């Protein structure tokens, strides 16, 4: 009816300028997708080098799509990639970077104190009606925003993307008890406006996907530790026997072993309803890899070698 029409028109107007904080594999992916769907994007990271890494990642990913889109035309490929990258501005100054934003999406390190401190700074500088979102894999959305004002908390949600962002169609939209209904609607509209499909979830550890995926990955690592099978055979088994596109070790390397460890350690020591759950018990093999700096694809070595 007319109401639905007017509210969706108003809402699609609502989010045009996005600021993504953290230009790692997730943040760069989110910036890339938002810019591909015509949003104006600011990407904030701590150093010019980090921003440059993000830009390289986006350029490479867009380059692959451009090759498919314009197979015979290198000039068109370059134009297309450049026009998308042209909508993404890099910045190392958080307060400037968020000052015009309709939506801020945080994708920095998976650490509650660092995320809380970041949002304290964001709240100083972002417009009062700006939607605030975290891409956290495992931390409670409510806790990330707990030190902000009630007005800010009403506008703060989880927007959980999946890796690789450009290819994975899902975004979990995580609502808290303090959200204004309109906030969730705007978040859903944004997700659809960037070509993704939302799944709405309450603020519980792991939301939907990670609550199911992390126990599976950890059980795979424990099979390896017990010598039941090697990682190649476990991966082959799950790909050919269960139809998964990647096996659990390929996926853990892809996600980043530091991220996997941060998630399970957090839940084992402090997870609401999960504390001490043997599903998330520390794994000697995982700890050893992370301690040696073998973090998976991003470091060139994890369960497998990528060099
Ligand atoms: N930008 C946009 N689209 C792209 C693209 C790019 N750079 N590159 C490829 N695509 C498109 C392709 O055109 C294709 O689209 P269509 O299906 O419409 O044709 C689609 O993306 C798939 O691409 P490919 O066929 O090249 O991909 P593939 O078959 O080799 O599969 C994969 C690659 C999608 C990564 C697949 O291996 C996969 O799904 N792996 C599992 C990944 C996964 O489970 N991720 C979740 C990790 S957990 C997480 O992220 C949460 C957390 O908090 C830790
Ligand atoms: P990453 O290590 O690739 O990137 C993190 C980026 O944040 C780095 O570029 C770093 O320089 C930057 N950064 C750190 N502190 C910052 C600060 N205070 N201000 C600005 N930038 C800062 O990590 P990632 O894999 O992209 O993960 C980012 C977040 O997304 C985490 O919360 C993670 O749990 C979540 N996540 C990860 C995955 C995955 O598969 N890796 C999937 C979904 C969600």
Structure description:
By secondary structure, the protein is α/β, with parallel strands linked by helices. 52% of the residues lie in helices and 13% in strands. It has helices at residues 2-14, 25-36, 48-69, 74-85, 94-98, 112-125, 141-144, 150-154, 181-193, 209-225, 231-242, 248-255, 257-270, 284-291, and strands spanning 17-21, 40-44, 88-91, 103-106, 131-134, 156-161, 170-175, 197-202. α1 (2-14) packs across α9, α2 packs across α3 (48-69) and α3 packs across α4. The relative contact order is 0.10. Residues 1-11 have low confidence and may be disordered. Residues 61, 64-65, 137, 162-164, 166-168, 209-210, 213, 245-246, 251, 255, 259 line the site of acetoacetyl-coenzyme A.
Strand and helix map with partners:
Blueprint: H1 2-14, E1 17-21, H2 25-36, E2 40-44, H3 48-69, H4 74-85, E3 88-91, H5 94-98, E4 103-106, H6 112-125, E5 131-134, H7 141-144, H8 150-154, E6 156-161, E7 170-175, H9 181-193, E8 197-202, H10 209-225, H11 231-242, H12 248-255, H13 257-270, H14 284-291
Parallel strand pairs: 1-2, 1-4, 2-3, 4-5, 5-6, 7-8
Antiparallel strand pairs: 6-7
Bound molecules: acetoacetyl-coenzyme A and nicotinamide-adenine-dinucleotide.
């Amino acid at each position: 009816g007319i109401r639905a029409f007017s509210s969706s028109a108003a809402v699609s107007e609502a989010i045009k300028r996005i600021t993504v904080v953290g230009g790692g594999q997730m943040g760069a992916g989110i910036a890339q997708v938002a810019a591909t769907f015509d949003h104006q994007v600011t990407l904030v990271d701590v150093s010019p080098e980090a921003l440059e890494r993000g830009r390289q990642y986006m350029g490479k990913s867009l380059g692959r799509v451009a090759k498919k889109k314009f197979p015979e035309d290198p000039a068109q490929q370059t134009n297309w990639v450049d026009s998308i990258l042209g909508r993404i501005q890099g910045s190392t100054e958080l307060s400037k970077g968020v000052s015009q934003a309709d939506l801020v999406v945080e994708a920095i390190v998976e650490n509650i104190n660092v995320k809380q401190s970041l949002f304290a700074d964001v709240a100083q500088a972002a417009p009062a009606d700006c939607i605030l979102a975290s891409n956290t894999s495992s931390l409670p959305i409510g806790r990330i925003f707990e030190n902000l004002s009630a007005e800010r908390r009403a506008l703060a949600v989880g927007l959980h993307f999946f890796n690789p962002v450009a290819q994975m169609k899902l975004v979990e939209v995580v609502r808290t008890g303090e959200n204004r209904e309109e906030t969730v609607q705007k978040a859903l509209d944004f997700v659809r406006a960037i070509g993704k499909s939302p799944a709405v979830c309450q603020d519980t550890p792991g939301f939907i996907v990670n609550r199911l995926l992390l126990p599976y990955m950890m059980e795979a690592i424990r099979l390896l530790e017990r010598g039941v099978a090697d990682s190649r055979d476990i991966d082959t088994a799950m790909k050919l026997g269960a139809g998964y596109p990647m096996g659990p070790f390929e996926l853990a390397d892809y996600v980043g072993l530091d991220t996997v460890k941060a998630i399970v350690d957090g839940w084992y020591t402090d997870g609401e309803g999960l504390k001490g759950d043997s599903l998330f018990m520390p794994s000697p093999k995982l700890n050893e890899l992370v301690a040696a700096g073998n973090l998976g694809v991003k470091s060139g070595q994890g369960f497998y070698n990528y060099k």
